[in-house]
Specification:
Layout: E1 2-4, H1 10-22, E2 29-31, E3 47-54, E4 57-58, H2 63-70, E5 80-86, H3 91-94, E6 110-115, E7 123-127, E8 130-135, E9 141-146, E10 150-153, E11 161-167
Antiparallel strand pairs: 1-9, 2-3, 3-4, 3-5, 5-11, 6-9, 6-11, 7-8, 7-10
Length: about 170
């Protein structure tokens, strides 16, 4: 597991913020639950998503924006890359403190989790159902970890949480 602050130049960080959050052109798509669950049960945590790379091919004209985050750290091919935008929710209404832990794929992979902006809503990593690390979203921070590690996100309470999640 590795945490790299300012993993890309500040100018590039600001460009990503501008493209994803400041223009009205970026194509966000509604999802009824921000964490995909194989059993299809919903935790009622709606948000927005955008797939840059899906089903072994580019899925977006913004693909280079996402791949430029991973490129300095690996030559491995991207399996999947997507952005998520979460909104603050009243967790008392949905009875949930922490999202269900998950892994992105069963096959071996590495997760590159880039935090677009400062936010609350930590990423939580688990080993044997015990918390081993909490990482707070910070603009320009990259969290790299083995994809076999179960992880989740806390729902933001104070503002939006925006990440780019790439699996290689």
């Amino acid at each position: 597991m590795k945490i790299i602050d300012n993993c890309i130049p500040v100018k590039q960080q600001d460009l990503i913020i501008n493209e994803l959050l400041k223009t009205k052109l970026f194509p966000w798509f509604y999802c009824d639950d921000i964490t995909y669950r194989s059993n299809k049960s919903s935790q009622h945590r709606p948000g927005l998503s955008h797939y840059f790379f899906k089903d072994k091919k580019e899925n977006s004209s913004y693909f280079k924006l996402a791949s430029s985050i991973v490129a300095p750290f690996t030559n491995e091919p991207i399996i999947q890359s997507r952005a998520f935008l979460q909104f603050p929710l009243n967790l008392k209404l949905i009875g949930l403190k922490v999202d269900s832990p998950h892994i992105d794929f069963k096959s071996p992979h590495t997760v590159y989790l880039y935090y677009v902006i400062d936010a609350d809503g930590d990423t939580i990593l688990f080993k044997n159902s015990k918390i081993i690390k909490k990482v707070t979203p910070k603009k320009g921070r990259l969290l790299i970890f083995n994809g076999k590690i179960w992880h989740t996100a806390q729902q933001p309470q104070k503002g939006i949480r925006c990440i780019i999640n790439s699996d290689v």
